[in-house]
């Protein structure tokens, strides 16, 4: 396993990087502007309702977990502007070697292929650099945009988890999608050395099938 933090991942105008102190105003503005857009998909606390930690708290907690290698919290930056966030957490090692991926994006930037590219960058990093074997994404059946993301990434559907996560004030069903390292490089199944996974396999496949939108932001 090779874990480096802070971490920056790039694909042309798309940059994934840790949130910084100077991002606070942009981050808070994004969350305010997209409150209604994100509400149906935001996790909530069944006891305390919708609790969004202050930016400073969120950043400190993410940094601590990231240094330990149990989380990758990355801002989605396009052409120098913060547009959303993608997080791999929890990251488990030992016999499981798996990670769960979550993400959100500014409504104005949705539908341009940014999230699939960001997810592909993170998945490739998890496989090639961190020795993770399986990446999972859970999606509410009503979330058509996120279902399109997992379709583009060729994540395998594994069924429905009933009342899996407390979202938007209630326990919600979630569909489960996953991909394993050997599905990208079958000849190297079971190996964890980064050289054996070919680096950017998921991203390369995505860009071949869905060339990125290059319209100005």
Describe the structure.
The protein has 217 residues and is of the alpha+beta class. The protein has one domain: Aminopeptidase. The chain has helices at residues 24-33, 35-38, 55-68, 114-128, 144-152, 181-184, 201-209; strands at 9-11, 14-17, 72-78, 81-92, 98-105, 134-139, 156-167, 170-180. α4 (114-128) packs antiparallel against α7. Mean pLDDT is 90; it is low at 187-199. Belongs to the acetyltransferase family. RimJ subfamily. Residues 188-207 have a biased composition (Basic and acidic residues). Pfam families: Acetyltransf_3. Residues 14-182 form the N-acetyltransferase domain.
Task: Jot down its keywords.
alpha+beta; Aminopeptidase; eight-stranded mixed beta sheet; globular
